[in-house]
Amino acid sequence: MSIAIVNGKLLDEQNKINVRNLLIQGKKITGVGYIPDEDEGALDVFDVSQSMILPSTFDFFSMPEVGDIVKYTHRIQSKGMLHLAYLPNDASCALDRPEDIARMIDQLGENAERVSFVACASKANGPNELSELSMLISAGAKAIYFGRIIENETLFKQALTYVDMIGVPIVFGPMTKMEKNGAHLNAGATSFEIGIRGESEDDELSSVQYVLSMLQSHPNIPIHFQSISSIAALQLIHSMKQHRSNLSVGVSPFHLVFSDEYLSHYNQRLKFNPPLRSSETMRLLRESLTNGMVDHLTSLHHPTLGDSQEKSFFDHSFGSETIDSFFQVVSHCLVESQLSLDYYHSLLSCPQSLSLVQPLVLGLNSNASFIVLKAVAESLQSHVLFGDIEFELQGGVQVIMKDGELMNT
Length: 409
Hints:
The strands form five sheets. The chain has an eight-stranded parallel sheet. Strands 3-2-1-4 form a four-stranded mixed sheet. The protein has a four-stranded antiparallel sheet with strand order 5-16-19-20, with helices on one face. The protein contains twelve helices and 20 strands. The chain has 409 residues and is α/β, with parallel strands linked by helices.
């Protein structure tokens, strides 16, 4: 049985949005545009009018256990995230050993073309010992992750110099000090109400200011801030982009629809790093999306590791499994913000300056892998997010296809 995706909008070779039909047989696209009448009886037809077809979806993911890399990658891709970059995870794999990266690339086989590894600049993501950066790149890492290394100014400077010499991008982790300072959420009315220490937006801003000052003497390194939650920090990075085109920044869509008020009942599934901020910051972050300040939407998805037994909010680690609801929330944000369709493509693809994944154009003989998101405002529909939060959202996921196979949506 062949599959036809009809009336969908996609980005073509001339970087223009056009309405196209796609004929899929096996793993490949065998027809673009005209679908022969004689094939209609042997077709499963999906009409995706007023929706956007996206073949280049990309995001950063915290590492699972090394032995789970194939299964975990397939699960993420089955949810519509077709290209991945793995970041160090203190709880599973710090990506600081060349042999781990080489082993995982070998395990992934052909799928390794869709996966990038962002190796850690420091041993065990600590602030005291530099990793063998050149060996990590030789093993297959495509970028370097700067996490706790920024706490050690001397080591930070050394790492910047080495990465500059190697010529690969840098990805910065959260610009917070929550784990170091024993904070668990945003500092504000909710943290005061529930009696748990929080961290303010000013802390994130000060970290961003420090990092940007250190980058002044290394203008040629592509830099990406994976997730920013402070509006002042986001504005600062945006102003810096006027002078540095290889700087990009991500924001989580969950920070655009949830505020820290949702933590008043100790919902550990919303314990993110960076944390959910105030309702006012949530509103300003939504505005930043329409103002072109955001380059990428990131899921902040973390794998479940070890004992899955429920823990208290205080003891629960940062991070949550978000991929099941990510594209639904993204679609809502894009539709609600009335963004043009080219934003759908850019916000969900790898920032161009990083060059970890080249944007794909669907054409004849292309691999049939893509996700289709609604791109028109409709009536709100109720969804259950994170297991127990009922939320009304617009938009939605129409189709997910991986290698010619329809995934459950």
